[in-house]
């Protein structure tokens, strides 16, 4: 419950680098992994078709 | 000044990410390679003008695949934007946030910052994230296909930015509108009307994207830095904050959208929008020093 109230994780710093930098690096790593697994192709195929669920038809 | 800057950034970003005018005119959507990338805010990829993908739609598209795969591509987007900006995205870059901001400006009803039972209702966005984006998209089936539950049953951005312009320009789609469309339309109207009275009700109580970026607020690069020693606890910032956050909450709360209203309102200038909590502004003399005419030495302050 405490976490949900304040979101106070000990995340200000990890070692010598600030947490936001670790998060950014992790984000870039995930993007590379996503690309490796071909997930961007899945996203593109979904995004270029009209999403029937999104517009309340499907 | 800052209010105008924020509004200009919101409008410019909305136009830049929804600038495919041909789509609006012909009831079609952009199909180019820019849609490989996600925009940071809630921006339906079925909007005729959208030139990027919606991160929540993308997350559900990956959950909707056969079998389970960790959605690295979208996690990367969340970690990248979250770690750098946190909920600054909500305050400055989200098109649906802009719509709600503009509606709140309409001088119709007496304004409220929060709904009754706010402390309970604010968990709605976490429930929406877990049930609709997560579990719903993984386990809800229609025939042989999984369903993007949040997009299908809740998302007002899809209705406003996607359904309304597409159905207006495309008679074939219009002829297929049924009960689900009218459910989504009535939900959209409820949220829009509520937005005239309450500040950003969708962001505060339902948006899964806000729940995700809120988690990054505590350690993101963009921070609101509070100089506690300079603060006279006048609560001017709390009154100025559209989300009614107290000064102690502002810098760390997952609810803060970095709108800067508290910073502008602070008479002591002890709140700053900074990068990683480091203030570049010159440190003002403390209120105590102002009262007594004495300057407090740094060593005394530390004690």
Shape of chain B: globular
- Multimerization status: heterodimer
In terms of per-residue confidence, which ranges of chain B show pLDDT below 50 for 5 or more consecutive residues?
Answer: 280-303
Would you identify the regions of chain A where 5 or more consecutive residues have pLDDT less than 50? 1-10
- The best one-word shape of chain A is elongated
Helix and strand run of chain A: HEEHH
Largest sheet of chain A: 2 strands, antiparallel
Strand order of the largest sheet of chain A: 1-2
Radius of gyration of chain A: 18 Å
Largest interchain contact: A-B, 41 and 67 residues
Number of strands of chain B: 4
The number of domains of chain B: 2
In DSSP terms (H or I, runs of 4 or more residues), the helix count of chain B works out at: 19
Helical region count of chain A? Answer: 3
Description:
The complex is a heterodimer of chains A (58) and B (303). Chain A has 58 residues and is mainly alpha-helical. Helices cover 55% and strands 7% of the residues of chain A. In chain A, strands 1-2 form a two-stranded antiparallel ribbon. Chain A is elongated, with a radius of gyration of 18 Å. With 303 residues, chain B is mostly helical. Chain B is globular and about 60 Å long. Chain B is built from 19 helices and 4 strands. Chain B folds into 2 domains: 2-215, no CATH class; 223-277, Alpha-Beta Plaits, CATH 3.30.70. Classes of the chains: A mainly alpha (58), B mainly alpha (303). At the A-B interface, helix 2 and helix 3 of A face helix 3, helix 4, helix 10, helix 12 and helix 14 of B.
